[in-house]
Amino acid sequence: MSKFKSSLKALGVSVLLASTAVLAAPPAVAQSLSEVLAAVKRDSEQMSAADQARLREFQQDTASQAARMAEGRSALNAAEGRAAALSAEFDANEAQLGALEAQVSEQAGDFQELLGQFRSAAGATMPEIANSFANFDYPDRVEAIAEIAEARVLPTRAQLERLPKAMLQEMIAQSEVKTFTTTVNGIGPEGSNAEAELLRVGVFTAATTDSRAFVEVRGSGSDTFLQVFGKQPAGNYSSSMASLVRAGEGEVVKAPVDPSKGNLFGILGDLPSFGDRLQQGGQVGAVIAVLAIIGILIGLYKMFTLFTSGGAMRGTAKTRQAGTGNPLARVFEVYENNRNADVETLELKLDEQILRESPRIERFNDIIKVLAAVAPLLGLLGTVVGMIITFTAITIYGAGDPKLMAGGISVALMTTVFGLVAAIPLLLIHAVVSAMARSNQQLLDEQAAGLVAEKMEAIHGGRA
Asked: Could you say which of 217, 235, 270 is where a domain stops?
């Protein structure tokens, strides 16, 4: 055992010695310390030289920048000097201007106050002249008045005369009816601007000489222009204007005049037309209109046929001519064909013919009556539909905007009106047609009873 421990110690010492020998081994290329030191010195010297060069360049740049800084400060001082001089000159000019204005005010005296009143009058008059139709017949008046109202210097006498001349010209234009040519917006193809000949009634109304379009003044101040109404007023105004256009000198005609210079015509143009009313009624209103038209056409047809048939029957009643031209003639035809029959048979034959004629006489009367009864019911249906539309709009959008509810209310009101408008004439037509039918029917009954009575008299008189 002790021999084995001695062997292990010897092995450990050997390994330790071998490791120490490896760590202490020299590099493969060896340099001497003197060579290393020399290399370090050379590198240090080179770095020092480069630093010195950069330092010299920095010092040179510092001097150059200092020179430019001095130049800038010199320029700034010069500019400040000029600014101070200009400020002083401005103050002096302001003072001189104030003194001159004071001198002008002193020399103007009462004329200055008069000029203020004149400018105030020009400012108040200018909008009236600018919005006048005569302004497009006598242009450049607004610019001339505006030049006086906005001027800071005393106007000349010629300039002062412009305002009274413009006012006098405006008063004369109020009594004129004349034509002139100017540019009108929206009168050309596809709404373009074009030259048009207009007829002016005073300073209130203007329309094209073909009476197809009324115009209005738009804009303000010197930027006013003539614009065709988006929706023209009703046709009777156009026809009245056309009569004025065709009127001869000194002739008195009735013509439309809008004292609001177009506002009233604009309101008239915005009023809904019959087509707009039909659209407001919606689908229910259209159905009522169609039924009303059908009922009226049927009623007119029935009145015509009953009138002509009644006239023919009354003529036949006088001539007692048998034939096939009208119901009474056919009754006489039956009488002639059964003249030799007994009274009961003849009466039955006549009754049979009258029963055949009755449906022809009363044909379509029930349709008119039904249409007259259905029309107000459809109007009531439209009222309910319109109220549903209104409450739906309120539920979705609220009640803040009345325009959102206008559609439903229009449907409700217009369908009610359509229903009544359709029902009233249809009821009247049905009453007339029924009366005419009863008259014709009564004529048939009277003539048939007369034929039977004649037959009875003939039998009892021994002539049969």
From this structure: 270
Number of domains in the chain: 3
Q: Are 253 and 286 within one domain? A: no
Residue 43: inside a domain, yes or no?
no
Domain membership of residue 23 (yes or no) is no
Q: 185 and 330 share a domain?
A: no
pLDDT tens for the chain, 464 residues long, are: 444 455 545 544 444 444 444 444 444 444 678 888 888 888 888 889 989 888 988 888 888 888 889 999 999 999 999 999 999 999 999 999 998 888 877 776 777 777 777 778 888 888 888 888 888 888 878 887 777 777 766 677 787 788 888 888 888 888 888 888 888 888 888 778 888 888 888 888 888 887 678 888 888 777 888 888 887 877 778 888 888 888 887 788 888 888 887 778 878 777 777 788 888 888 888 999 999 999 999 999 999 999 999 999 999 988 888 888 889 999 999 998 988 888 889 889 999 999 999 998 988 999 999 999 999 999 999 999 988 988 888 888 887 777 777 778 888 898 999 999 999 999 999 999 999 999 999 999 999 999 999 888 888 765 44
149 with 237, same domain: the answer is yes
Do 358 and 403 lie in a common domain?
yes
Owning domain of residue 428: 275-462
Query: Burial letters for 137-152: b for 16+ Cβ neighbours within 10 Å, e otherwise?
Result: bbeebbebbbebbeee
279 and 380 inside one domain:
yes
* Within-domain flag for 17: no
Could you tell me if residue 341 is inside a domain?
yes
> Which long-range CB contacts under 8 A does 236-241 form with residues at least 24 apart?
237/265, 237/268, 238/207, 238/211, 238/212, 238/214, 239/211, 241/199, 241/207, 241/211, 241/214
